[in-house]
Design the sequence.
């Protein structure tokens, strides 16, 4: 049994130690490169004080690492002091049906992790983000978000847990396939339900209609050969000064969402370029490709879980009763999670290719320079680290670094002849 404990600690703690080392390496590399590229950051990103970017990155990274290791410490203490085992034994002796035991166990884990995260979330919002003038959230709004988010997460996780455990009980041989189908189906459903049901619990979405902004949006749609009636501006500014935009849904449920901070911080051509980039993910089929990749990933995960949950050593590792399948699944996930982290470059490889395609589409549709200045504005306004360490980038970046993207879109513009304003007749692609 000692060898399994060694494997567990090496895999779980060792993986986290590896990523901690990567984060520290990335900080040093980013600081050294940013100072060397001070003129570029001033001219391209409009960053007057490079040190403010570095301070922000240090604060965020430091807080993230402390939070991660505190959570890791709680997990290891709970496992190796027998606290988790005591909870599982209490549940098995409670007289509750196995399915109810599993749901209660997972909900307790979720609530425990939420409690541990509270001081770090508060510090992030009201100290780090406040210090760099990003925070617009009041304590009352934070408390409301935390309460609503906890309820929503508990309902969703509890329902999925109940369904998976029901499959385990009813289909002991084929439950991984059934659970895989459930999770893939749920992921597709969330593309529709999240923007329509969950997101409005936290933000207001105002339809963009009959305005200069709507005219600009419609122009992008026309150039891109795209149809979408649902265009919304989201009140992101009531929480943060960060800016973004996104596209979600499929079929008649498609919708485009622009942060109000994005609209405020960017020129109209820049907003159009960001929108064209987001639309490209639909036009080029990236949405469905991502769904396919996720489905493949889930298939591997559930296949491994199906094997591990039947291994007696998995339960003996922490003295768990073997009839508590939900506890076995929990421990199995602790083994699978680090492996998924270590294989993240595989998924990032495809994401990077899709992002380059989307940038190219934005250049074809709206021209190179608006896209280049939009990228620079996003990086500068959000105090992003433009120079990640190559190894850190490999594991963490699903978008190319900003300098690489700016260079790429300008080269695309020179090649296609769209380096300035968009041409009058831009070809579209389906």
Sequence:
């Amino acid at each position: 049994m000692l060898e399994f404990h060694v494997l567990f600690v090496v895999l779980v703690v060792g993986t986290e130690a590896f990523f901690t080392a990567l984060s520290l390496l990335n900080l040093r590399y980013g600081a050294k490169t940013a100072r060397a590229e001070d003129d570029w950051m001033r001219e391209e990103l409009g960053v007057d004080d490079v040190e403010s970017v570095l301070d922000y990155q240090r604060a965020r990274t430091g807080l993230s690492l402390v939070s991660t290791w505190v959570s890791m410490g709680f997990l290891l203490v709970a496992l190796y002091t027998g606290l988790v085992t005591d909870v599982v034994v209490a549940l098995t002796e409670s007289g509750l049906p196995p399915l109810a035991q599993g749901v209660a166990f997972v909900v307790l884990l979720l609530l425990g992790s939420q409690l541990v995260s509270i001081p770090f979330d508060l510090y992030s919002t009201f100290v780090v983000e406040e210090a760099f003038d990003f925070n617009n959230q009041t304590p009352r709004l934070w408390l409301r978000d935390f309460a609503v988010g906890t309820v929503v997460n508990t309902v969703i996780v509890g329902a999925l847990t109940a369904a998976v455990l029901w499959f385990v009980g009813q289909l002991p041989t084929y439950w991984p396939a059934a659970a895989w189908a459930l999770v893939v189906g749920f992921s597709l459903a969330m593309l529709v339900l999240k923007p329509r049901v969950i997101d409005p619990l936290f933000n207001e979405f105002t339809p963009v209609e009959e305005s200069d902004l709507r005219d600009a949006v419609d122009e992008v749609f026309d150039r891109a050969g795209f149809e979408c009636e649902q265009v919304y501006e989201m009140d992101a500014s009531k929480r943060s000064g960060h800016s973004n935009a996104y596209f979600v849904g499929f079929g008649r449920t498609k919708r485009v969402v622009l942060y109000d901070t994005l609209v405020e911080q960017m020129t109209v051509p820049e907003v159009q370029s960001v929108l064209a980039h987001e639309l490209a993910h639909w036009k080029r089929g990236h949405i469905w490709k991502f769904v396919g990749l996720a489905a493949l990933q889930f298939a591997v995960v559930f296949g491994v879980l199906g094997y591990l949950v039947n291994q007696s050593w998995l339960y003996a590792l922490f003295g768990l009763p073997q009839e508590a399948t939900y506890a076995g699944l929990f421990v199995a996930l602790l083994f699978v999670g680090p492996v998924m982290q270590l294989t993240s470059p595989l998924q990032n490889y495809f994401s990077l290719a899709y992002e380059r395609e989307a940038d190219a589409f934005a250049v074809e549709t709206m021209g190179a320079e608006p896209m280049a200045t939009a990228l620079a504005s996003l990086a500068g306004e959000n105090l992003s680290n433009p120079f990640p360490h190559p190894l850190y980038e490999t594991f963490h970046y699903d978008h190319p670094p900003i300098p690489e993207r700016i260079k790429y879109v300008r080269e695309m513009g020179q090649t296609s002849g769209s380096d300035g304003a968009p041409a009058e007749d831009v070809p579209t692609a389906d």
In short: Strands lie at 205-207, 231-234, 245-248, 255-259. The chain has 17 helices and four strands. The longest strand covers residues 255-259.
